[in-house]
């Protein structure tokens, strides 16, 4: 037996496992790709295009060997807002710019710094997305039109439910959506042989059969054809990239897609014992995929934890599984696009409502509140800001709050006063004196007697910012009463 044959035989079990895993990932990805596209307000086929690129382009590149990329529920709200504001032709230009920015950051080795983003901000971002996603998808479940803003979606739900009570179409649509949601958590209890079919595909399949068998008056996915849906961005769309609004959207796309991908990579690394993620290479791979998606006018991609976990749990060993899943998506989109027209939109809404609910970390928030209330506050404020304002502003508010919280916690300062009852009063400041602690410092200093000499020793400070230094000097100038020796400041010398 030749060494070549021996090598092939040695590799065959691994390839067989990757082949089986790729089929599982394909069956999980198919309904999610379509559902995310429909919820984002773009043709269903564009979701498949992004899934195909995630498999065939990003899947072939180095970074994280078992992580699977494609359209993500976490980007749905942002994409919907971008399409509504700038139009579908501009989406390709935004995604292309996002991809190029990600590639540049990866080449500059900035990928590792995304791990420095507060986990509370990321979880708050996902929670806010989840809440808006749930509220937004309840409207197609009720056969109603969703309001534009996040607050409007939530505020309008009671009225939408009341309107649906007397509408047979709305009741049928809601029942189909509720049935789809119910199947997803219950699917793990069915016999193991049946459970080889992934829950999302089973739920959509059962809903499709029910809609057909009962002749339910529900909306179906509109099909345009793969080639008809792929529209490269026109040159005019690139001229709008200099606008402040579009630049902000590109930054938001980049921040959220990169953070979600790299946090997903960290989670996937905990699921297997194979090679660890190379964060900078993974960021380049995600950027390359988004660049291609942008050129095709498709949805942005991120690494998706649901598909990645399914890939690992199905026994994948190499990146061949994710590449093959892209091949299966391509074959489906090319050979069976008409199947999409038989999928009920309420069923896809149910898939995304369930996905949105999983983005809201209720248990994690309860644990944070008991153990780290500051982190819980950052998470909650980020989520509420995204719902109340918008995705980009909400994330910025969360990041700013996380920075302020960290600065507050790190600026511990202690004032020790030694007063022997007569003669000078000695005061010693130690720690980190920043503007955040300035009110506390001044309140303590202003309580010192004004008719006795005061010596303020600053040698114990590790850090003294400009605001504090200026305020302390001003206090020293005005504190002493007339006829009393001025306050004496002692600072750390260069030798000390």
Automatic annotation (TrEMBL):
The keyword Transmembrane helix applies. Keywords: Membrane, Transmembrane, Transmembrane helix. Residues 15-382 form the SLC26A/SulP transporter domain. Coiled coil: none annotated. InterPro entries: SLC26A/SulP_dom (IPR011547), SLC26A/SulP_fam (IPR001902). Its main location: membrane. It is found in: Membrane. It is a multi-pass membrane protein. GO terms for biological process: transmembrane transport. The chain crosses the membrane at residues 20-39, 86-108, 120-139, 168-187, 199-221, 241-263, 327-357, 377-404. GO terms for cellular component: membrane. This is Sulfate transporter. The gene is ychM.
């Amino acid at each position: 037996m030749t060494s070549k044959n021996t090598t092939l035989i040695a590799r065959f079990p691994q390839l067989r496992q990757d082949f089986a895993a790729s089929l599982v990932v394909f069956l999980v990805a198919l309904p999610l790709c379509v559902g995310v596209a429909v919820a984002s307000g773009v043709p269903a086929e564009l979701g498949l295009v992004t899934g195909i690129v995630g498999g065939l382009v990003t899947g072939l590149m180095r970074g994280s060997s078992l992580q699977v990329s494609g359209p993500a529920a976490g980007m749905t709200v942002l994409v919907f807002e971008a399409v509504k504001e700038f139009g579908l032709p501009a989406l390709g230009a935004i995604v292309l710019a996002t991809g190029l920015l990600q590639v540049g950051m990866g080449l500059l080795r900035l990928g590792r710094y995304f791990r420095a983003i507060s986990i509370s901000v990321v979880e708050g971002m996902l929670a806010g997305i989840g809440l808006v996603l749930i509220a937004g998808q309840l409207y197609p479940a009720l056969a109603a039109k969703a309001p534009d803003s996040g607050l409007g979606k939530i505020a309008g739900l009671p009225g939408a439910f009341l309107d649906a009570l007397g509408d047979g179409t709305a009741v049928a649509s809601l029942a189909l959506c509720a049935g789809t949601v119910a199947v997803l958590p219950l699917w793990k209890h069915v016999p193991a042989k049946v459970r080889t079919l992934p829950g999302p595909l089973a739920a959509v399949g059962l809903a499709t059969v029910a809609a057909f068998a009962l002749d339910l008056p529900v909306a179906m996915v509109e099909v345009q054809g793969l080639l008809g849906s792929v529209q490269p961005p026109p040159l005019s769309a690139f001229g709008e990239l200099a606008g402040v609004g579009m630049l902000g959207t590109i930054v938001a796309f980049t921040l959220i897609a990169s953070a979600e991908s790299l946090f997903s990579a960290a989670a996937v690394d905990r699921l297997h014992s194979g090679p660890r993620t190379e964060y900078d290479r993974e960021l380049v791979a995600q950027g390359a995929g988004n660049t291609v998606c942008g050129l095709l006018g498709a949805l942005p991609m991120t690494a998706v934890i649901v598909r990645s976990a399914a890939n690992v749990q199905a026994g994948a060993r190499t990146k061949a599984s994710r590449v093959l899943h892209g091949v299966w998506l391509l074959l489906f989109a090319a050979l069976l696009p008409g199947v999409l027209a038989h999928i009920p939109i309420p069923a896809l809404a149910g898939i995304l409502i369930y996905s949105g609910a999983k983005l809201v970390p209720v248990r994690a928030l309860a644990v944070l509140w008991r153990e780290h209330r500051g982190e819980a506050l950052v998470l909650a404020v980020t989520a509420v800001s995204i719902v109340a304002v918008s995705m980009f502003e909400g994330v910025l508010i969360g990041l700013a709050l996380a920075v302020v919280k960290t600065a507050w916690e790190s600026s511990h300062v202690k004032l020790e006063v030694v007063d022997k009852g007569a003669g000078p009063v000695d005061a010693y400041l130690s720690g980190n004196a920043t503007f955040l602690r300035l009110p506390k410092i001044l309140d303590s200093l202003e309580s010192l007697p004004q008719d006795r000499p005061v010596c303020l020793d600053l040698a114990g400070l590790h850090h003294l910012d400009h605001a504090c230094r200026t305020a302390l000097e001003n206090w020293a100038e005005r504190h002493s009463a007339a006829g009393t020796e001025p306050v004496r400041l002692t600072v750390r010398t260069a030798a000390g």
